[in-house]
Each structure stands twice: as structure tokens, then as C-alpha cells.
Amino acid sequence: MFGNLFEEDFSFISNNHCEKGKKSKPRDSEPPAPRDFTNLSGIKNQGGTCYLNSLLQTLLFTPEFREALFSLGPEELGSLDNSSKPDAKVRIIPLQLQRLFAQLLLLDQQAASTTDLTESFGWNSHEEMRQHDVQELNRILFSALESSLVGTSGHDLINRLYHGIVVNQIVCRECKNISERQVKEDILEMETLVMSVRLLQSFGGKKRVDHSKVETLFCITVCLQLFKIILQSAKLRKLPPFLTISLLRFNFDFEKCERYKETSCYTFPIQINLRPFCEQTEMDDSEYMYELFSVIIHKGGCYGGHYHVYIRDVDELGNWQLKVNEIYIQEESKQIPVDQLGQKLLEKKGVSWNKKYRKEYGALRKYLQNHPHIFQFSPDENKVGLKEKHKLPFKSDSQGQDLQSPSQKNDVQWNSEKNPTRLRASSAGCHWFDLNDSKVQPIKEKDIEKQFQGKESAYMLFYRKSQLKRPPEARGNPRYQIPEHLLNEMNAANTELQKKRAECDSANNGIDLHLHLSSCYKFHNGALHPSLTWKESVVDLTIDRRKTLGDLRQSVFQMLESWEGDMILSIAKPLPAGLHLYQILDGDELTLDGIELADGADVFVWNGKEVGGTKVMTGPDHAPVVVNVLRLAEYNEGGKGQHFTESQHVFSCSTKLGDLRRALAPLGGIILKNGSEPDKEAKNWEVFLEEDMKETVKSVGLTDGCSVLILDSHDQSENNLCPGNLTAFTYDISWLQVKNYCRTEEEEKHLLSQISSYLNYVIYLSVFPALLVTANDSCLRPVSGNGKLLSPVPEDYTVKEAELKMGSLLGLCRGKAPTSTQTALLLLSFPYVCFCFSVGDNWHLRRIDWCYEAGEALSQEAMTLPCFQEQIVPLPSFLRAWTVDSKRPGKLLRNNKQQLNDYKLGARVEICIEPLQKEENLGPHELLLRVQMGIPGERDYYDSTDLVWDISKECTAWALRQRVASHYFLPIDKIEIAKYFAEKFEWLPISSWTQQISKRKRKKKQESLQSAPYHLKDGDIIGVKNLLLDDTKDFSTVRDDVGKEKQRQLAFEKKKSRQTERLQDHVFSEEKLNIKHRKPEVALSINVGVFR
Predict the structure, then answer these.
(1) Alpha-carbon distance 197 to 208, whole Å?
(2) 531-575 pLDDT, tens digit each
(3) 188 to each of 112, 245, 316, 648, 775, how far by Cα in Å?
(4) 524 is catalytic
(5) What's the distance, Cα to Cα, between the start and end of the chain in Å?
(6) The one catalytic residue among 17, 18, 50, 580
(7) Which residues have C-beta within 8 Å of that of residue 530, sequence separation ≥ 6?
(8) Annotated active-site residue in 17, 298, 306, 308
(9) Which of 125, 613, 772, 1068 has the most crowded CB, counting CB atoms within 10 A?
(10) What is the pLDDT of residues 447-503, one digit of tens each?
């Protein structure tokens, strides 16, 4: 019932004739979709109006009701344009119903909106969201129409079509006297109970009346006796043209005090003869024959659900063609390979055959073979096509545009059903449709039988007299009997819809191209550059992507009337160096979408040879690359610290490095490449060797923004280098950045220093220009990535010993730097206290001030530490860091140089440190396990040892057994292994047993141990049994038995406490569960003006 709950209304007809001053509603950016192949329009669901949609569709497909409503003109009903006038009597409800019917019949849209109609009812948005009963709506809507049509020629519309006379009879068994009372009512009140019977049985049944409940009931006319036995029945005195039957499926259970829906079987015929149930039976049979033409179906329960309707198309307004799915495959040949058919279905419809149709129709090839009257196989049955009688000469898209003609390509219609079959002679041409809100689809007549019972079953039945014949001019004519003013309104609305769809189609399929004209460009410095401004050199062109390349070329010719000679169109791309040309667009018969010409693409228009007299090389191999070239600019004493100048040069991707070196260093030299990305700091410099000079710029990885360092022969002489040690020198070049924290204005100095240079010399180079501090008063502190100063670097360390990478940032700070025999520790407390540990007989703690000047020892006795000659502070590579999870090591934190933020540990995480005996650096594909060998004859294990297992190739049970067997130097078939689950005190054996299975399933069997059920991870304990010494395969220990017993006791205590709580709250919980919070029911009403 809540379909299209958030679907906004979109209609190009004025949605508000009632109040002109009202602000128009927001419209969607796209027009509504046109009607589908059924040529019938659905109705949008406003949130909970499916019951209204089903009844409106039934009234629409009642031609006599529809035409009687259309016969009322504006002179009787008024005009919606005058609805705002205070004295005007405008019958809004029938007028809005007329407009809605006209939209459903003539407006080319998939679904119409009932917003205007519900507003005429006086409903607000809350009422449109509530669910109501369709039987109740039928009575209220007819009553509202009768009140609205008072004083018009249609005042008896409802009475003429739906009202009849029912006579209730009471028969005396003694004298056979018949006592009757006449009740004139609409047949909508003719209700039948659903109790596993047929419709005819419920009509013809007689009721016995208990005489004890009618104490004063006498047969006054004849025998003047108290009725002993009374039979009560109903007879139809007057039959209406349309018979409406409501099935009372909603009942009340007095024992449970709740409502329920009766889902038992209740059958009803397509045709029914009411002669046995009529009072007068002397007329011809045709007077009593009725045909079913509408079945309103309810799906759900008594508190909510969804309505839709099965309707017989009496006037043949719809296009009935039963099918599962239909696609049009455009192919050059008449047949296509069967193996490619499923892929083409996926490309065209976005859903695979196996996912949507295989369950109902079986395999695709089998389905094709079962329909030989439609599909034709090749002799080898590898290709399939359609037989000639099933091919369509023409196919239109959803916007009505002709996509192709038979002279261009072969249209293949894929129809999953046979040709439509007629139901029978009496209803030839009248087919059934399922109208489910916005969705309309054809159904078979036998599908009605599925609605006899169940949660989705028939709720209201609508029959029409078989004598009601339709005129021939009404067949297939939706414009029949529609007033002229509504025809004009719908024609204008369709014209507006077509215009909007054309605009939307143009916007969706139009692409904007930027045409660059060769006459406005010149070629220099390896790329194309505009002679004028960029805007003057580019011409914008909008074209449909479905057009061909020949159409694009013709459009360009029309724009450039003065063009002479051949015209070549090439894809261009703006690069940092300028505009570069790539592939040439060729194949005038191909569509722009087929050649993947994207929106906003740059197209260069030229003769294909030269631009401004210069030959232009095209393609990605000749793309220009902008390279940042660094050169030494200043020379200091000794040539150990240098400043640089930077310039940009453009080279083609096909340029060889030898040519690049000759261009940048004509007197000879070496080239260093920045191995980092262009937007990052330069940390990895590589030297191009002599054998690299034959490579191209593209092959060595030089891209836009890459930096190269040029050291020509002059630079080598300044650094006292001879050609013999030139290569060795280039490997010792280190690029450092120093930020001066000793000055008021921070400045960065770029230094070129040899890795063997001492840091105190680097300090000298940095301090010498500043003249503020001396080398003895300053120290160098590395700066981390987030700008924090790290511990000072010993002054007698070389750059290599200090582990400074290329491009590292150092901070020049006040204070004395420690030596290589000292370690400086900074405590993150206020004030800063720095402790210097001097390696010797004793370690002393000394306070250091803000300038890192070491003071006196804090205490000569209490603060003197014992001798630590055999102990040293471990390096990070001798430590393992684990997260703590349930008081056990959890995740292993690899890569000591990675930031903690990258691990995404979260807040309040605990970390434990494990010291190692030897240095360790685990890779990303190495798994750290704890293996322990079982003690033969005992339920215990030796101490565990660490086992590093490389899982880059595979992480299977067989590979783990091989690694464990090689670790203990045992045969692989003489060991058994199991993983220990400490939280459960259980061991899970890891078996590599494999059975004889097919190759297709073998890959599926070799699942990784990191998945279920083992979930192998770092730190897991693996138990090993040596079958040569111990043939028992029980991995459990005494500690495991004790742990399991404790767990059982805890589980028993928790279960006992839960049972106690359940017993205490049993009554309260039962009452709480039985409470069903439902929204209060609101009566349905329609507001009607006074027209009497």
C-alpha cells in the first residue's frame, strides 16, 4: 500500500484550477515517463491511496459510467476556473473526476496523479497517508457523487447503474405463507461471508430463524399461529446493469477479542446466471447473465496491506501482449552466439538470466530449445536468431525516437511467450490487465483463480450484464465521448510533454565539445599553444551523442565555412606543457557514444599533418612532460653545502635520457631523479647510470612535476671529484632542509651535504649566515611529519649514522647537542626535564634547562643508578608492540615507523611491549605464531617458540604443516597440529585431509586459514604432536579441563539467575507482549458542497 511513498507529483497540466493564487507545487527536473507497451496509464500512489486507485480504475473501465460522467458539460457542472469565485456553484468532484479520466485515457504518461481529486475531497496530506477499506470508499464516493450531481441531468447516475431491489422473504412451514419486506438498496450492500463456499452457494442459501428470538411473530394472514419453523431468504426483484459484490473477509474473533482476515477459498465464476435468485424468472436467459470485469484484490492482513485490481479491457483500449521480458539486440548478423546472449541481456537490461529468469524458466539454452517456433538455431547449435515472422521492422525508444531502420541493422525481438491467444468467442479482444498503482501489466484469465484464497485474495467483485454491448466506434478509441474542451486540454498537455521530453532527451544525450582550430594555434616548446586568448581559440559545440562521427564532421564544416582541404578531428588533452593531440577520430559511420567521446572533450580540428608549418607528433608516446631541473647555484668553502636554482623544461615522452643530458648538461655531468611523487617531499633520489641513457623519459618514469638534479663537470670539480669516483659520489649526496628555530623569523635552508659529513658541519653552514648563535650553542633536532621536534641528534654523528633520509627536515635549536655516548630523553610533563645517561660505571641523572644546558646531578646517592654495563636501552627493532584485548595480546603493531593514527586503534586502547632477543622486522605477508611441542606421555607442552610463516603464496593447512614440520625437522606425515582458543579452552585440529573432488570444487575447498573456522592471526598458539613419540591426538591439557569446568559453572549460574528473573516478570512480560500499538482508526469522509 505504501508504493511510491516518496514519489513526487509531476504533471504538465495545471494542477490547481481551484485556487489560482496558490503557489504551484515543485516539479521534478525530468518529465514523467511515457506509457509502456500496454498503452494504459496507472495511477500514482500518494502514500496510502492504493484503495482509491483500484476503485478509480474500475470506474474508468466501466464505459457506461465513464461516458455518463463525460456527458455532463460545463453548463451543468461549472468550470474549475470559476471555483475561486464566492458565488459560483462549481461541482468540483465530478469535474476533477472528468479530468482524471481524460488524463488516464489520453495523456501520454506512465501514471496520473490524484492530487487534485483528493484535494476536491477535502483531504489533507495525513488523510492521503492513511489506509482505508475500499468497500467503505465505494459507498462514500457514490454518496458524494449523488450529492454533487443534484439538479443536473446526471442526478440518477448511480441509481441508474448500480441500484436494484432486494426482497427479503420469510416462509411459514405450516401454511406456506410468504411474508416479505422490500428493501431498495445498492448492490454494494450485497455482502457475502467467505466460509469456504462458492459464490452461487452463498447466493442461494436459506437461513433458519430461531423462533425463540421472535416471540411475537405470528402468521396473521392465514393460520394465526406462532411460527414454529421459519425459513428466511432474499430474492432479487430488479437487477442493476452492474452488480457489485463485497466479500466479507474481515471478521472479528470474540474469543480472542481481535480482528482477523479470512483467507479460506472462495470461488467465483467468470460468468454467472442469476435466474435462480430472482423473483421473476420468465424472461430470457440473456437478461440474467452477468460477466466479471473487475476484481479488486487485497494483499496483507486486517490492519494493513495493499490493494490492486484485475480489470477486463472491454473497449480494447490496451495493448495486450503477455511476455516475461523483451529486449532488442542490435547485431550486424542475423544470428548471434548463444554464449554471448546472456551477456547481451545483462548489458541491455542490467540483470542476468540466472538471477531473474532461471528459477522460473530454467537454463537459457534450454529455454531457447523449448520455443522452436520463435528461435532458430544454426546447424551446430552455437548461434541463435529469430524466425522471420517474429522480427520487427522498427523499434522506438521510450521517448518515441526511431533508433534504427531495417536497412541499417537487424532487429531481434526476444519474446518469451507465444502469440497472444483469445480467451473465447464471447470475449474476443477483451483481455485482462493487472493495474497496480503506477504499474500496468497484462495477465491471463486463469490468473484470477490464484486470487480465490490466501493472504492475497479477491476482496470485491464487479459484474456487468452480458447484454451491455459496446458500439463499434468505441473499440480501441480512447477519445470516444470525451468532451471537446477536455480533448483540447489533453492535446495541449501532450504537446507540452513531448516538448519537455525532447528537451530532457537533448540534455541527457547532448554532449558539449570544445573545438580547437589549428589556425588559432602554434607549436613550440613541445606542445600546442593558442596564438590568441584561450576563449578566442576555442569554439563550443553541443551535439547528440547518438549521432555519428560523420554528422559531427558535417556540423564542423557548417560552422567553418571558410575551411579548405581535408579535415581531421583528433582528441586533444590540455597538459601542463600545453595542448597535446592523441588518437585521430576515424569511422564516420560510428556513433559518438560508440567511440566513447565524453562530455566536455577537447577536439582539435586540423589537416592531420602540421600546425603553422610545424609537423606535430601525436599519441601518448610523444606527450610533453614538464620536468623541474635543479642546479647548484652557490658554492661554499669545501663545496659541502650548496643552494639550488630551479627551472622548468619540456621534453617529449619519447626523448632518450642521453639527449636530455646533452640538452641540460652539454659539458657532461650526472642526473639524479627524485623518486618521490611530485607533490611530496623529496626523500628518495636515484642516479641515472650510463646504461639508462638509452631509455626514454616515459620508460624511466619521469612525469609532469618530477624533479631532476643536474651536476655538471663544474660542480664535480668544486667537490674535488674525479671521473673514477663520480658514481660513488652521487650515491652519497643527501638533500636536507634546516629550519632555524633560533631566529624570530623562521627560514628554511636547503643544503647539499655528503652523507659522510658530520652534523656539526651542517650546523656551521646553517648558523654562519645568521650570526646569531655559534655551533657550540645549537643542536639539530629532526622534525616529524606533524611538526613536532624530536630528540637532538648527536653532534659527532654522520648523516648516515643519524638515519636521516633524503629531504629530511631538521630544526636548528638552542642548546648543546649530546654526543654519541649520551642519550637524551624528553618527558612530556611540565616543566620539561631531560635526563642524560652517561655510559660508564654509574648512570647519573642531570636536570637540563630550557636551552638544554646540563646542570648538576640531582642526587649523588639517591639518584645514582646501579651499574648497567650489560644492559642497554633496546632499539625499536628489538621490541614488539601488541594491543591488549581481554587481558591478552591482540593485534600486532607492525612497522615501527608508522604513525599510531594509521592503526585506527580508537580511544582508551591498551598497548603492551614485548622485548626480543634479536632484531625483528616483520613484513606485511608474514604471520607470527607461537608453536609448542607436546610432551610425550603427558598432557602438557614444552615452552612455546616464535614461528614466522610467509603466507604471501598461500595460507592453507598443508602449507602450515610444511612450515611446522620444517621448523621441528620432522616428516610432514608424522605431525599433527591444532589451534588453541584460549577463551574457550579448546583445541581445533588443523587437518590437511583432502578427498577426491573435481577441479572446479578443489579451489573452493582450499580456503584460507585466516577465514572461518580457524581465523588464524598473529600470536595464535599452535600445538604440535610428534607422532613418532606420542600417538595420542588429544591436544587438551589439565588446565583446559579446569578452565572448562569454571566456564560451565559460570554458565549454569547465569542460566539460573535468568530463569529466576523470568519467573518474576512472567505476568508483566506476557501483558507487555500482547500490547499492539496501532494508530487510531479514522473514519473516511468526502466533503461535498451544497447544491440543492
Answers:
(1) 18
(2) 888 778 898 999 998 889 999 988 998 888 778 778 899 999 999
(3) 27, 6, 27, 89, 107
(4) no
(5) 37
(6) 50
(7) 520, 521, 536, 537, 579
(8) 306
(9) 772
(10) 999 999 899 999 999 999 999 999 999 999 999 999 999 999 999 999 999 999 888
